Amino acid sequence: MSTTRHLVNRQRRLATVAAERTAAPVSRPVDPEEPQDEPEQQKEPKREHEKEQKEEDPKSGRPPRLRLRLPAVLCVLTVLLGAFAVWAFASAGSLRDDPSRRNTALTDISRTSEVKGQITEAVGAVFSYDYASPAKADAAVKKYLTGKAVQQHTDMLAEVRAQAPKQKLVLTTTVTESGVELLDGDRAHLLIFADQSNTRTGKSEETTYAAAMFAVDAVRRGGTWRISAIDTFTR
Length: 235
Known about the structure:
Blueprint: H1 2-23, H2 40-55, H3 64-97, H4 109-126, E1 129-130, H5 134-144, H6 149-156, H7 158-167, E2 169-184, E3 187-200, E4 206-221, E5 224-231
Antiparallel strand pairs: 1-2, 2-3, 3-4, 4-5
Helix pairs in contact: 4-5
């Protein structure tokens, strides 16, 4: 009799447990070491982070895009530096070839003073003429002029030489100021300022005065500076 009651009670307990399982899910204790399922919104940033880590270079830590751009940037810099080197070399060559860079008029004081003194003397001699001693003027031409300056001087004083015997002309030229614009070795270019007086010594003496400005090229030969060209700024 007790056995029968025991079986009946067991069946009731089993039925009660089955009913409870059907009514609500059984909750089990949470294991702190067991990984839990993450919400869908939290999984998405994690996937993006894992994707970025995969795209990164495992060695350098830089994205592949940056590694691809770096050689291109270095190539452009190399081309620019090469172009700058070519430009600098060409500029240096042009500066060396520029006559103004070889001008020593302001640095070679001794040579500058020498050319100024000798050309001042030459201008005074060749642009002065005395009807009474034409040979002196001819000697000055041979001493102080060379190259095309000889013919230029002949053309400039042709009228003076023609009128001098009749009017008894005496032409005197005095340099008042001169400046060396270019001094390059044995070549020089000077700007000349001068006063001229033209005196007629006939029956009635008459003197006229004039100022002159012109430029001359000079060359040094045998230790002497000579005028090689005359520029009166007239065309």
